[in-house]
Design brief:
Blueprint lengths: L6 E2 L15 E4 L12 H13 L7 E3 L6 E3 L4 E4 L15 H4 L2 H16 L10 H8 L5 H22 L5 H17 L4 H4 L14
Parallel strand pairs: 3-5
Antiparallel strand pairs: 1-2, 2-4, 4-5
Helix pairs in contact: 3-5, 5-6
């Protein structure tokens, strides 16, 4: 079990026009975040926050058995129970386990969506990479390196460019990014120029 999430891809190579299929970039929490079903009031809270960050309302949906993630092929945000941390924390949790629902949503929308939707796209791991990895055309080492950088980029972007986060929320996002690098023995100074973290960007339809 990892002590922080890694990129998990859902979907397959069905036609893109099928809105039920997509590749979702999402966190595998390993049971370290909330697993209880979300009550209506929590769903509405998260939905409204996502909309406030620019997510289109008809692109938001909830799942009881899949994890929170953004799907760039159809521009949809899937919200799972893990969008919230556990209700009771003991102070020993990693930054990712502590992160608020606002951090989770900012990571997906400001972090992933705006990077994916920029022109040109600044996604560091793509659907094409996923299919190449599944087909044996990309090594596990290369794929995991790309997915790590993409998640690091998303957390730093959310930290820097989400205007209404608290200092604690920003600190958790930045610590999450550094934890991911540390786990893979990657030095930030050596990869920082690969990251789209110097401007917020804009989502282009």
């Amino acid at each position: 079990m990892k002590d922080f999430p890694r990129l998990t891809l859902f979907g397959d190579d069905k036609p893109k026009e099928n809105l039920e299929e997509d590749i979702f970039y999402s966190a595998d929490t390993g049971g370290l975040r909330n697993e209880n079903l979300l009550p209506t009031e929590r769903k509405e809270l998260v939905k409204q926050y996502a909309i406030s960050l620019g997510m289109r309302e008809d692109g938001i949906f909830f799942s009881e058995d899949k994890l929170t993630g953004y799907g760039d092929l159809t521009d949809r945000l899937r919200i799972g129970t893990d969008v919230f941390p556990k209700d009771e924390l003991d102070g020993t949790e990693t930054a990712n386990a502590r992160m608020s629902y606002r951090c989770s949503i900012a990571h997906e929308i400001i972090g992933h969506r705006l990077a994916c939707g920029a022109k040109p796209s600044h996604a560091l791991v793509t659907g094409e990479d996923y299919f190449a990895y599944q087909a044996g055309e990309m090594s596990k080492t290369e794929y995991e390196y790309k997915e790590t950088l993409d998640e690091v980029q998303a957390s730093i972007r959310a930290c820097k460019f989400t205007t209404d986060l608290t200092d604690v929320e920003r600190a958790d996002l930045f610590e999450d990014a550094m934890d991911r690098l540390k786990n893979k023995n990657i030095i930030f100074e050596k990869i920082k120029d690969l990251l789209y973290i110097n401007e917020r960007g804009k989502y282009y339809e």
